[in-house]
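It is worth pausing here to work through a concrete case rather than discussing structure prediction in the abstract. The textbook approach is simple: state the sequence, then state the predicted structure, then interpret. We follow exactly that order.
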Amino acid sequence: MLLAATAGSDRHALVIEHQLRPLFAFFRANALPAGIYATGGDFTAAGGIEERLAVRIAPVIDQLGLWLGGARAHGPALIRVA
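Step two, the predicted structure:
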């Protein structure tokens, strides 16, 4: 599984490592080593994502693709930034 979280500020950035990862480990879920954390500033007013978030998401999606079944046939993840 891919762990992801959003919150209002960077002060909650460790929620994935200190809360979600131990919780899902208790339930014996297989989680990727990388997680994605975003704040309100990572999203546009139109509901899209800022480029800096897309840059952080792309390698994690590629890692997920490798974990689920091998190399992606069409190269790195392409994320549309609104």
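Step three, interpretation. The first strand starts at residue 3 and ends at 7. Residues 24 and 31 are 8 Å apart (CA to CA).
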